[in-house]
Automatic annotation (TrEMBL):
<keyword id="KW-1015">Disulfide bond</keyword>
<dbReference type="InterPro" id="IPR052071">
    <property type="entry name" value="SCUB_EGF-like_domain"/>
</dbReference>
<dbReference type="Pfam" id="PF07546">
    <property type="entry name" value="EMI"/>
</dbReference>
<dbReference type="GO" id="GO:0005509">
    <property type="term" value="F:calcium ion binding"/>
</dbReference>
<keyword id="KW-0677">Repeat</keyword>
<dbReference type="Pfam" id="PF07645">
    <property type="entry name" value="EGF_CA"/>
</dbReference>
<comment type="similarity">
    <text>Belongs to the EGF domain peptide family.</text>
</comment>
<dbReference type="InterPro" id="IPR000742">
    <property type="entry name" value="EGF"/>
</dbReference>
<dbReference type="GO" id="GO:0009986">
    <property type="term" value="C:cell surface"/>
</dbReference>
<feature type="transmembrane region" description="Helical">
    <location>
        <begin position="7"/>
        <end position="25"/>
    </location>
</feature>
<dbReference type="GO" id="GO:0005615">
    <property type="term" value="C:extracellular space"/>
</dbReference>
<dbReference type="Pfam" id="PF14670">
    <property type="entry name" value="FXa_inhibition"/>
</dbReference>
<dbReference type="InterPro" id="IPR049883">
    <property type="entry name" value="NOTCH1_EGF-like"/>
</dbReference>
<keyword id="KW-0812">Transmembrane</keyword>
<keyword id="KW-1133">Transmembrane helix</keyword>
<dbReference type="InterPro" id="IPR001881">
    <property type="entry name" value="EGF-like_Ca-bd_dom"/>
</dbReference>
<protein>
    <submittedName>
        <fullName>Multiple epidermal growth factor-like domains protein 6</fullName>
    </submittedName>
</protein>
Length: 219
């Protein structure tokens, strides 16, 4: 809708033109021919993690005639943050199939022809998407699974290097893999479990004692 307003100041006259949107109603549940759709959406969460690391520090020894100290290993803690993408399902309201919006009318009250034999875009070569294809506002929207992000072409997916954010949650060494990552420990340490991101010190002396064998000659 276009409004033209003419006003004058003394002998000078001006004309102002205003362009108003023809959509005066938002789509609401219960409006004519408005349906609800569940569509995927990528959201980003910021996660805090309590991490620890060992450090050798000097400690004074009491009861010594001179300054005496020994070194002990203490555990220090700190908080790190990392961003994680996850896929959620959101409910949105749009025109039901076969209907579209009409200017100045609530809901969707203009009938459109729907070719039942014409397949949906996502049904043909996945809509051009490498991973997830969905329909939003009569167009194709591509998304990626966890561990990947949408490329600049908005159709293909690129691997996310989780190690760049908070070292991937690993205590020691983070190794990026395609679509995921894994944690490794430095030499002299081992993981608490196969799926753990934390490391513990290896007692080489105890393990060597278990593997050593002694042979005694019998006379």
């Amino acid at each position: 809708m276009i409004l033209v307003w003419r006003f004058c100041v003394f002998t000078n006259c001006f004309i102002a033109v205003f362009v108003l949107s023809t959509w005066t109603f938002d789509l609401q549940p219960g409006s004519p021919n408005v349906c609800s759709f569940v569509r995927p959406q990528v959201v980003r969460d910021r996660i805090s993690e309590l991490r620890s690391y060992p450090r050798t520090v000097p400690v004074l020894i009491n009861g010594c005639n001179k300054v005496c100290m020994r070194y002990v290993t203490r555990t220090f803690y700190y908080t790190s943050y990392r961003e994680v993408d996850r896929m959620v399902q959101r409910t949105v309201f749009d025109c039901c199939e076969g209907w579209t919006r009409a200017a100045g009318q609530a809901g969707c009250q203009r009938r459109v022809f729907v070719d039942q034999e014409q397949p949906l875009p996502c049904a043909v070569q996945n809509g051009g998407c490498q991973s997830i294809c969905s329909h939003q506002d009569n167009r194709v929207v591509c998304a990626c699974h966890r561990g990947f992000r949408l490329a600049a072409d908005l159709s293909s997916c690129l691997d996310v290097n989780e190690c760049l954010v908070g070292n991937g949650g690993c205590q020691s060494r983070c190794v990026n893999t395609y679509g995921s990552h894994r944690c490794e420990c430095a030499r002299g340490y081992k993981k608490l479990s196969a799926s753990s991101s934390r490391c513990k010190d290896i007692d080489e002396c105890s393990e060597r004692a278990l593997t050593d064998t002694s042979v005694q000659d019998v006379v």
